[in-house]
Design a protein that fits this description.
about 200 residues; mainly alpha; 8 helices; 2 domains; elongated; Rna Polymerase Sigma Factor, Chain: A; Arc Repressor Mutant, subunit A
Length: about 200
Protein backbone atom coordinates (compact mmCIF):
# COMPACT_ATOMS: atom_id res chain seq x y z
CA UNK A 1 0.00 0.00 0.00
CA UNK A 2 1.39 3.38 -1.00
CA UNK A 3 1.40 6.21 1.45
CA UNK A 4 0.35 9.70 0.39
CA UNK A 5 3.54 11.01 2.01
CA UNK A 6 5.63 9.70 -0.88
CA UNK A 7 6.90 12.52 -3.09
CA UNK A 8 6.47 12.54 -6.87
CA UNK A 9 9.96 11.19 -7.51
CA UNK A 10 9.34 8.22 -5.22
CA UNK A 11 5.99 7.54 -6.88
CA UNK A 12 7.58 7.67 -10.35
CA UNK A 13 10.23 5.20 -9.17
CA UNK A 14 7.55 2.88 -7.70
CA UNK A 15 5.58 3.05 -10.96
CA UNK A 16 8.67 2.21 -13.00
CA UNK A 17 9.12 -0.84 -10.79
CA UNK A 18 5.64 -2.02 -11.78
CA UNK A 19 3.38 -0.48 -9.15
CA UNK A 20 0.36 0.83 -11.10
CA UNK A 21 -1.16 2.35 -7.94
CA UNK A 22 1.79 4.75 -7.81
CA UNK A 23 0.77 6.26 -11.13
CA UNK A 24 -2.88 6.46 -10.05
CA UNK A 25 -1.74 8.45 -7.01
CA UNK A 26 0.38 10.77 -9.19
CA UNK A 27 -2.58 11.29 -11.50
CA UNK A 28 -5.03 12.06 -8.71
CA UNK A 29 -2.49 14.37 -7.06
CA UNK A 30 -1.97 16.52 -10.17
CA UNK A 31 -5.11 16.02 -12.28
CA UNK A 32 -6.85 19.20 -11.17
CA UNK A 33 -3.89 21.50 -11.78
CA UNK A 34 -3.04 20.06 -15.22
CA UNK A 35 -6.71 19.98 -16.31
CA UNK A 36 -7.23 23.58 -15.15
CA UNK A 37 -4.11 24.74 -16.99
CA UNK A 38 -5.35 23.23 -20.25
CA UNK A 39 -8.89 24.55 -19.75
CA UNK A 40 -7.61 28.07 -19.09
CA UNK A 41 -5.93 27.99 -22.51
CA UNK A 42 -8.61 26.30 -24.63
CA UNK A 43 -11.85 27.25 -22.80
CA UNK A 44 -13.59 24.08 -23.99
CA UNK A 45 -14.35 21.15 -21.65
CA UNK A 46 -14.40 18.41 -24.31
CA UNK A 47 -11.15 19.59 -25.89
CA UNK A 48 -9.60 19.96 -22.43
CA UNK A 49 -10.49 16.35 -21.64
CA UNK A 50 -8.97 15.14 -24.94
CA UNK A 51 -5.74 17.09 -24.46
CA UNK A 52 -5.53 16.04 -20.80
CA UNK A 53 -5.76 12.37 -21.78
CA UNK A 54 -3.25 12.86 -24.57
CA UNK A 55 -0.85 14.51 -22.11
CA UNK A 56 -0.99 11.59 -19.69
CA UNK A 57 -0.67 9.05 -22.50
CA UNK A 58 2.57 10.86 -23.42
CA UNK A 59 3.64 10.84 -19.77
CA UNK A 60 3.07 7.06 -19.48
CA UNK A 61 4.85 6.41 -22.78
CA UNK A 62 7.87 8.51 -21.76
CA UNK A 63 8.06 6.83 -18.36
CA UNK A 64 7.69 3.31 -19.79
CA UNK A 65 10.35 3.88 -22.45
CA UNK A 66 12.82 5.10 -19.81
CA UNK A 67 13.14 8.59 -21.31
CA UNK A 68 12.03 10.49 -18.18
CA UNK A 69 14.96 12.19 -16.49
CA UNK A 70 13.46 15.25 -14.80
CA UNK A 71 14.06 14.02 -11.26
CA UNK A 72 12.07 15.92 -8.67
CA UNK A 73 10.30 18.02 -11.31
CA UNK A 74 7.39 15.79 -12.28
CA UNK A 75 4.59 18.38 -12.22
CA UNK A 76 6.43 21.10 -14.22
CA UNK A 77 7.37 18.40 -16.75
CA UNK A 78 3.74 17.26 -17.12
CA UNK A 79 2.57 20.90 -17.36
CA UNK A 80 5.09 21.50 -20.16
CA UNK A 81 3.79 18.45 -22.05
CA UNK A 82 0.19 19.67 -21.65
CA UNK A 83 1.10 23.19 -22.68
CA UNK A 84 2.93 22.00 -25.80
CA UNK A 85 -0.09 19.87 -26.78
CA UNK A 86 -2.31 22.97 -26.55
CA UNK A 87 0.09 24.95 -28.76
CA UNK A 88 0.23 22.03 -31.24
CA UNK A 89 -3.57 21.86 -31.28
CA UNK A 90 -3.89 25.56 -32.14
CA UNK A 91 -1.25 25.24 -34.83
CA UNK A 92 -3.01 22.24 -36.39
CA UNK A 93 -6.47 23.78 -36.39
CA UNK A 94 -5.22 27.31 -37.13
CA UNK A 95 -8.03 28.59 -34.92
CA UNK A 96 -5.70 31.05 -33.33
CA UNK A 97 -7.29 34.32 -32.28
CA UNK A 98 -5.06 37.16 -33.30
CA UNK A 99 -4.48 40.40 -31.42
CA UNK A 100 -2.84 43.69 -32.21
CA UNK A 101 0.19 45.06 -30.43
CA UNK A 102 0.66 48.77 -29.80
CA UNK A 103 3.96 48.90 -31.63
CA UNK A 104 4.53 51.30 -34.54
CA UNK A 105 4.60 48.53 -37.15
CA UNK A 106 2.04 45.92 -36.22
CA UNK A 107 3.21 42.53 -37.46
CA UNK A 108 0.16 40.96 -35.83
CA UNK A 109 -2.50 43.01 -37.62
CA UNK A 110 -3.78 39.86 -39.29
CA UNK A 111 -7.49 39.91 -38.53
CA UNK A 112 -9.40 39.45 -41.76
CA UNK A 113 -11.68 42.32 -42.67
CA UNK A 114 -15.19 41.78 -44.07
CA UNK A 115 -15.88 42.81 -47.64
CA UNK A 116 -12.47 41.84 -49.01
CA UNK A 117 -12.31 40.33 -52.50
CA UNK A 118 -10.75 36.94 -53.22
CA UNK A 119 -7.35 38.39 -54.17
CA UNK A 120 -7.20 40.43 -50.96
CA UNK A 121 -8.15 37.37 -48.90
CA UNK A 122 -5.36 35.34 -50.54
CA UNK A 123 -2.84 38.11 -49.80
CA UNK A 124 -4.02 38.21 -46.18
CA UNK A 125 -3.68 34.42 -45.83
CA UNK A 126 -0.12 34.63 -47.20
CA UNK A 127 0.73 37.34 -44.66
CA UNK A 128 -0.67 35.19 -41.84
CA UNK A 129 1.51 32.30 -43.02
CA UNK A 130 4.59 34.56 -43.23
CA UNK A 131 4.00 35.80 -39.67
CA UNK A 132 3.72 32.20 -38.41
CA UNK A 133 7.02 31.37 -40.13
CA UNK A 134 8.67 34.38 -38.46
CA UNK A 135 7.42 33.18 -35.08
CA UNK A 136 8.82 29.70 -35.75
CA UNK A 137 12.30 31.22 -36.19
CA UNK A 138 12.31 32.94 -32.79
CA UNK A 139 14.26 31.52 -29.83
CA UNK A 140 12.03 29.10 -27.85
CA UNK A 141 11.40 31.44 -24.87
CA UNK A 142 10.38 34.31 -27.15
CA UNK A 143 8.29 32.06 -29.40
CA UNK A 144 6.39 30.72 -26.40
CA UNK A 145 5.52 34.20 -25.11
CA UNK A 146 4.48 35.43 -28.57
CA UNK A 147 2.22 32.41 -29.13
CA UNK A 148 0.63 32.69 -25.69
CA UNK A 149 0.04 36.43 -26.08
CA UNK A 150 -0.90 36.52 -29.74
CA UNK A 151 -2.70 33.25 -30.41
CA UNK A 152 -4.02 32.35 -26.95
CA UNK A 153 -4.74 35.98 -25.99
CA UNK A 154 -3.21 35.50 -22.53
CA UNK A 155 -2.34 38.46 -20.32
CA UNK A 156 1.30 38.97 -19.32
CA UNK A 157 0.29 38.03 -15.77
CA UNK A 158 -1.06 34.67 -17.04
CA UNK A 159 2.03 34.18 -19.20
CA UNK A 160 4.34 34.84 -16.24
CA UNK A 161 2.43 32.32 -14.09
CA UNK A 162 2.44 29.60 -16.75
CA UNK A 163 6.09 30.04 -17.72
CA UNK A 164 7.17 30.58 -14.09
CA UNK A 165 9.01 33.85 -14.84
CA UNK A 166 8.37 37.41 -13.68
CA UNK A 167 6.00 39.69 -15.61
CA UNK A 168 9.01 41.85 -16.51
CA UNK A 169 10.79 38.83 -18.00
CA UNK A 170 7.69 37.92 -20.03
CA UNK A 171 7.40 41.53 -21.26
CA UNK A 172 11.11 41.55 -22.12
CA UNK A 173 10.80 38.34 -24.12
CA UNK A 174 7.88 39.80 -26.06
CA UNK A 175 9.83 42.99 -26.74
CA UNK A 176 12.88 41.07 -28.00
CA UNK A 177 10.62 38.83 -30.10
CA UNK A 178 9.14 41.89 -31.83
CA UNK A 179 12.63 43.32 -32.38
CA UNK A 180 13.83 40.01 -33.83
CA UNK A 181 10.79 39.71 -36.07
CA UNK A 182 11.31 43.23 -37.41
CA UNK A 183 14.95 42.36 -38.15
CA UNK A 184 13.86 39.23 -40.06
CA UNK A 185 11.28 41.26 -42.00
CA UNK A 186 13.97 43.76 -42.96
CA UNK A 187 16.61 41.10 -43.78
CA UNK A 188 14.24 39.21 -46.06
CA UNK A 189 12.72 42.37 -47.51
CA UNK A 190 9.26 41.13 -46.60
CA UNK A 191 6.10 43.18 -47.08
CA UNK A 192 3.35 42.53 -44.55
CA UNK A 193 0.90 45.22 -45.58
CA UNK A 194 -2.73 44.30 -45.99
CA UNK A 195 -4.39 44.61 -49.37
Amino acid sequence: MLSKVLNDQELVHAYLEGNEKAFELLLSRHKRKVWSHIYLLVRDRELTEDLFQEAFIKVVHTLKTGKYNEEGKFLPWVMRIAHNLVIDHFRRTKKMPLVRSNEEHDVFATIAQPGKNVEQKIVNLQIDEDVRKLIDHLPPEQREVVMMRTYLNMSFKEISEHTEVSINTALGRMRYALINMRKMIKQHDMVLDRA
